[in-house]
Specification:
InterPro entries: CBS_dom (IPR000644), CBS_dom_sf (IPR046342), Diverse_CBS-Domain (IPR051257), DRTGG (IPR010766), HotDog_dom_sf (IPR029069), Ser_kin/Pase_Hpr-like_N_sf (IPR028979), Thioestr_dom (IPR006683), WH-like_DNA-bd_sf (IPR036388). By secondary structure, this protein is of the alpha+beta class. It is 35% helix and 25% strand.
């Protein structure tokens, strides 16, 4: 039977897009406490069912599929820009297709503005009105207000009219940054993208027997199964090693491995790959926040996904990508060393190289050394930076990794970093080698 929390989530999921909800309304409708309703609404917000806006409330929004993740709703825009809603609250769930900066004449502005757009403009009342009539939402910058008849028009057309204290350039930068971050998320493969769902995943009950395991193995051609209790919560994993030599009548809960490692739907596949390699696991159960079974993910699924990801073009570039692109082989010395230029992006507020960038440089240089030696990919197990001097902006660094040990599964590397002839950093890394 579903818990009260799950009942609330299902109720919210069944509400029409644009519906406004509140803690008291949920508590009264489903006969639960205010605290239970509040926690469920926050969970729904984390899952993308609703969006909460100051002075407006909580609104049911469309849960976006991954292919449309970079499209923002007007409700999300309000939170990104720390804005307020002047009118058109019923349209906050709608999706933004593009934004237009109104730094032009009114006629020219309207040529670029259409349905689903967001016009970013100052205190130009006529532009506000014309944009709404064209089917676009309006964002007024500089903290300005608009006239009452424009607010009434926004309510009538269900198109949001927003205001923010930021200027147009800053607002556009903030929205672009949000879209860019979503593009990066879109490229990251998560467990939910490749899992075998609960409807298709074979599992066993606590009261099942060893004989049931043999029958299920014959039926599915698999040998690893999660063991569930009456509430669909994962209590263990059972494999061939657990049942071999056991009496056929023995119940599964007596032979299973208890408290198995589990993952959530939002876990990255890269993290799962590391966990599987570290622990020597072939199959992992996927669970929700309540530890209820949602499916399984196998090592084969993970490897296929990672191979596919390597062949895909990258839309959003992360800071690791930027650092990696700036790290190049030292053409002058040809001794396996690398060069790296410290650009403004790579520095802290004092204008010296950031600690995070330094560790990324060291790790990437080590990864490339092992790739050159045909050792496969590297997963850093431990890193000790035992010397680091400030490195100024625009410096050109020389990175010299030296492999101390290289076994079949482990590697040990000492990395020295020079600025000219002066040593500015040293690191010792222990790595686990992963065959490609």
């Amino acid at each position: 039977m579903a818990t009260k929390h799950e009942q609330i989530i299902r109720y919210i999921d069944g509400l029409p897009v644009g519906e406004k909800i509140s803690v008291r309304q949920i508590a009264r409708t489903l006969n639960v406490s205010d605290g239970t309703a509040y926690r469920a609404i926050k969970d729904a917000e984390n899952k993308g069912y609703v969006s909460t806006i100051e002075r407006v409330g909580t609104i049911r929004i469309e849960r976006k599929k991954k292919e449309n993740i970079e499209k923002l709703t007007f409700a999300e825009i309000v939170n990104i820009i720390d804005g307020q809603v002047l009118g058109g609250k019923d349209g906050l769930h709608k999706t933004l297709t593009k934004f237009v900066i109104g730094a032009m004449t009114l006629d020219a502005m309207m040529r670029y503005t259409g349905a689903g757009n967001l016009l970013i403009v100052g205190n130009r009342t006529k532009a506000h009105e014309n944009a709404l009539r064209a089917g676009a939402a309006v964002l007024i910058t500089g903290g300005f207000d608009t006239e009452e008849h424009v607010k009434r028009l926004a309510d009538e057309l269900e198109l949001p009219i927003l205001t923010t204290s930021y200027d147009s350039f800053t607002v556009a930068t903030m929205i672009n940054r949000a879209i860019y971050d979503q593009l990066i998320k879109k490229e990251i493969i998560l467990v939910e993208d490749i899992l075998t769902p609960v409807e298709e995943a074979a599992s066993m009950e606590m009261k099942s027997t060893v004989e049931d395991w043999y029958n299920m193995k014959k039926e599915t051609d698999h040998s690893r199964f999660p063991v569930l209790d009456a509430r669909m919560k994962v209590q263990g994993m059972v494999t061939g090693k657990d049942v071999i030599g056991q009496d056929y009548s023995l119940s599964i809960d007596k032979v299973m491995t208890k408290n198995p490692l589990t993952v959530g739907r939002k876990t990255s596949v890269a993290s799962v790959a590391h966990a599987m390699i570290w622990e020597g696991i072939e199959v992992l159960p996927v669970v929700d926040d309540q530890q209820r079974f949602e499916g399984i993910i196998s090592r084969q699924d993970v490897l296929k996904a990672l191979q596919m990801a390597q062949r895909q073009p990258q839309v959003g570039e992360t800071i690791d990508d930027t650092v990696s692109n700036q790290l190049s082989s030292n053409q002058q010395k040809d001794d396996g060393s690398f060069t790296f230029e410290v650009t403004p992006q790579m520095t802290n507020q004092l204008g010296t190289i950031s600690y995070g960038v330094f560790t990324t440089i060291v790790a990437e240089a080590t990864n490339r050394v092992f790739r050159q030696q045909k050792k496969g990919e590297v997963a850093v197990e431990s890193m000790t930076i035992y010397f680091l001097k400030p490195v100024q902006i625009d410096s050109v660094l020389q990175i010299q990794p030296m492999v101390l040990e290289a076994g079949r599964k482990f590697g040990k590397v000492d990395v020295e970093v020079y600025n000219g002839n002066e040593i500015v950093g040293k690191a010792l890394m222990m790595c686990r080698l992963i065959d490609r």
